[in-house]
Write the structure tokens for this entry.
Amino acid sequence: MRRRMHLIVSTVVLGLLGTACSGNVFDLAVGDCFDDGDMSVEGIEEVGEVPMVECSEPHDNEVYAVVTVEGERFPGEVAIQTEADEVCLDAFSGFVGLDYQTSVLDFGWLVPTAETWEVGDRVVACFIYRVDLEKVTGTLQGTGI
């Protein structure tokens, strides 16, 4: 069973202050890499910043899709998480070059909260990482693993 990491974007920063180079989750782009820091691999956490790492250095995660969600009203936690699962799964094989079921990679996502939705956050950021949680050096784009 894969242990997918789900993160809720929030203005609250949990356990990530004091990292050498933190990046605001609102500014993440495809190709950005970051470490887990103090984030949990299981369960759902609210984060505002992630510890950014150059992709050429060993890292835990790489952003592979950033999608804007439509709608005026916050769809609710379950609905936004379900949509994130769908868009991240759809983008997975196009980025990695291998289908999700065969890959040694898993994915997680960062999604808006009701509070960040109110200030205009509509972005779902999908990120990939190794199922065995080993660090990766370089991009995972097109690796077919």
The chain has one domain: 6-130.
